[in-house]
Amino acid sequence: MSTDDAADEFEIIRHYFAPLAANAPGAFNLQDDAATITPNPGFEIVITTDAIVAGVHFLEDESPRNIAAKLCGSNLSDLAAMGAKPIGFTLACAWPKGTSLDTIAAFAAGLREWVDGFDFPLLGGDTVSTPGPATFSLTAIGEVATGQCLRRNGARPGDKIFVTGTIGDGVLGLLAAQGKLNVIDADYCAFLEDRFRRPNPRVSAGQALVGQAHACLDISDGLVQDLSHMADASGVSIRLDAASVPLSPAAQVALNTDPQLLSTILSGGDDYELLISAAKMPTSLDVLMTEIGTVVAGPASVFTQGKDGEEIPLANTGYNHFK
Amino acid sequence: MSTDDAADEFEIIRHYFAPLAANAPGAFNLQDDAATITPNPGFEIVITTDAIVAGVHFLEDESPRNIAAKLCGSNLSDLAAMGAKPIGFTLACAWPKGTSLDTIAAFAAGLREWVDGFDFPLLGGDTVSTPGPATFSLTAIGEVATGQCLRRNGARPGDKIFVTGTIGDGVLGLLAAQGKLNVIDADYCAFLEDRFRRPNPRVSAGQALVGQAHACLDISDGLVQDLSHMADASGVSIRLDAASVPLSPAAQVALNTDPQLLSTILSGGDDYELLISAAKMPTSLDVLMTEIGTVVAGPASVFTQGKDGEEIPLANTGYNHFK
After folding, report:
1. A31, A49, A131 member nearest B55 (Cβ)
2. N or C: fewer beta carbons within 10 Å in chain A?
3. Which residues of B touch A315 (CB under 8 A)?
4. Is A100 part of a structural domain of the chain?
5. What is the CATH number of the domain that holds B273?
6. A133 and A183 co-located in one domain
């Protein structure tokens, strides 16, 4: 792990980050130019990189613990979508000048929860300073049986569409965090905010889907937009039954009070649930799984259907975080 | 490869970045949540991540082509230091709002030189926007025969110390780019600037060093500081013979004119040459290799010795770019 701020940043790496690498012998205690990884025999490496910027992907005043959660959660969700088992990660941190050691310590403690919780050690990275907002880029590494990874291009006519967990909590949680969700009480707002701030990546479910799902991706751009990614990649038409989309109690109460939120729920992002196309309901998952649509032959498209079969027009199918 | 700026950024990925992934079947044309990599049998994966920030690691007005060079060159240099053969890379780009498509196209064209030159395809990544300076993080992936990677902790008493290429061009090139190197003529300045702006990572040499070098790292923090990294990791004392440090003609003329530059040359960074500890001069390298010191038993330390054997005091052994 390299650094550019002379000795004190070497100290930061040694003190705060090297302990996160303790379970990865190939990380060499973050003291070499790079780390080594050996996939298990018969497995290949899966790799994904996501970046987040203060004020763009997380709120400016977000806690270091929750920044770590967003960073690890969103990348682990990408591994889950490929059916991969996590191996570890590299991390580039650009801290604003003057960032306190307390902030860095809290961030490292936040990472620790994910390192321990998902057997996901730090393998290396870089710590630099920036005159701009805090910016983080995480590269997550996993492994999957060679040739078995889940992709988004395998949906077939006759498949059913499934999702894990509940949909819309991420975008409603963002509205709650911004004080823009006044239709529900404080407990529900707190639940949704937590769902927004702390993704719950479906890592075990993703691995269990290998061999069961024809296509899979994670819902980060919003349900309808991610369905269109699957439809485009697979060359199929997907019919989404809006009424069957699973909602948390908090989201259900919000929607009951303000039916206009349906479009927000279906097109908002940051859900970090898995979207699956499969011949039948997958089994052996450790998470709620709900059928929400069907795959039919036809030009790549998504048709969102309401209770009476009519098409629901969606104002916004591209999620732009909170810019 | 994900994005956060709606459809136009998907277009940017498709148009400018997907062609850089053409030679990596496991990159899935940058359309999936992650990429797959399979190391050759008997090889393990080597991974390294470096970040660069406009105004910190490269000049604010640097050309997109040279930004791509700094990013690829510095990371390939880390792979070289481990003795690894490049496989590919992931890339997170945070572009300032309003960055033109011309800039992005020029950056992608700059990456293309490295993708083609080092058989180093793009595997995935993320494109986001930032209210701050342009920030890039590259994760380079390579492979090395299992258990054979070069590390910095293997220097042994009795070893000789070698470097590839010439030392000090990076820091002198930075001074030249800033108009602070007035002791040499314009052609020499242009040569040094180019050395600063466009690293020449010793990728073939690194691979050839496997089995020959006891320890290796790349010189990014500055020769003396990187020697101290090797001394610390190996638990040895290193004697650097300053007079034998290889200089380019431009650096030699600068030093002849201003002998005070010796300390700058020995402690400046951004050389991206390899620093090697070995029992004897390594062979079969495609680059100049010069013996510059010896390893002796003793507490971890670096002793920099001038022509008459006296110790040269170095004012600054920690390189801070140009902050």
Report:
1. A131
2. C
3. none
4. yes
5. 3.90.650.10
6. no
